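Assemble and predict.
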Amino acid sequence: MTHLRSTFLFLLLTAIPVVQAQEGHPLVGTWQGSWSENNNFLTIIMNWDGQRISGIVNPGPGSTEIETGNLDSSRWHVELEMPLTDDIGDSADFSIEGEMINVTSRTRSINGNWRYRGDSGSFILTRQRGA
Amino acid sequence: MTLLIGLTSANALLAHHPVAAKFDLTNPVSLTGRITEIDWANPHVHLFIQVDENAGAAGNWAVELESTIELERGGWTADDLSIGDIVNVQGPAARDGSEQLWGQRVSRSPDGLVLFTLSEQAVDTWLSDRPDGPVPRWPDGQPRLGPPPGQTGYWINTGSGSLVEDGQNIAMDAEGVLANIQDADRVAPFQDWAKDLYVLRQRNVLRNDPLYLLCIPPGGPRQFQLPYGVQLVEQRNRDRLFVLMGSGNRNWRLIYTDERNEVSQLSGNDDNPLFYGRSLARWDDDTLVVNSGGFNEGFWFSNGGLPHSRLLQLEEQLTRTDLNTLTYSVTVNDPGTYTRPWTSSWDLQWVPGEEMPEYYCQDNRQ
């Protein structure tokens, strides 16, 4: 887990926001947060093509992509699923479910819960300004 | 309250930001105090008044008024009040609880003179004396989008509040705030997320509008909706047209007429989306047809908070039908936001004999 944490920290520090979106689809852009009691960092760059939410998870070496992404805008409920690889190279599904807060703000957030390998907990993903 | 609603629904030239976004219309206050400072500047004139304990909420209050442009068109100047004058101010207080109010009614003591009033008919009166005339043309017969030779002038929007699909008649104010939120479905063929975001922005009275919050440029059709006009400067020897705006950030958009391809300065639209996109135009008889793409998502492309995505493509048509009228029509094709292409049209009016008023947006109003 320590290796996983340090990898995420490295990726956080080297991640370059490549999506300039601010005011379009509320999920588009760069989001960051941490999960688990070890504060594993998570960076997701999401996009929207008119039909599907896609995204890169922890960009850089070892990055993965969002497998499924849903936004129920009637209640601003978000569901994301993506594979994450642990420090011994095993991959498992990581899922996020939560509510988008301050939707019209540039620094909106997704507050909810994560699930990974039978563990779960709460977290906050925050959209990065200017990204 | 009736007066306040009347103010916010006034003509486009009588509004800068939605008053209700900053001030709580349900919380009117009346204060009497001595003027300590007059800041006669854009985007809003401010009076600062010292209110005593026995005259209302004690403190140094900032009274926000319209811009210098609107006030001066209404015949008011910075000399109409002096430091030390006693005034009574009525209007809604700031939502954030700070010592600010919107100056709906300002009256001077002891004579009771009411100052800084603006008429909804002022623009009509202002434009009623314009001379009529045919479309001015270049020697080769192409319509001029700017002034006739040797003259000055620019265009203002006296009609559209925000983009609305042609054929729909929807009540809204000059900033595009709907009179009835139930009309949202008829504004445009939104995808679900886009309609929900639009409705949320409307319910928030557009308070997160990046144009006013951060001075973000108004790309696309919003350039033709803003209150202080737009100027079209044709540079025919360079095959391009400048679109200069009298509102918001002081910059320009370029429209090329040299049949170039739509490519960016760097490596394509995907890597370098722009606030104004990339615009290429051609003449179709007397209509300038402008096709634009390559927009980023960092701005609102219309008053009223209609969203868009990076897939946005616009076809704008500009037709000068006589000296004083420019018909503007835009077809929005954004499969990331709308279920089908749709079109919105309105007329702009020529303001002869003037340059666009100088107006700068101020950042740091967060």
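The longest strand of chain B covers residues 23-39.
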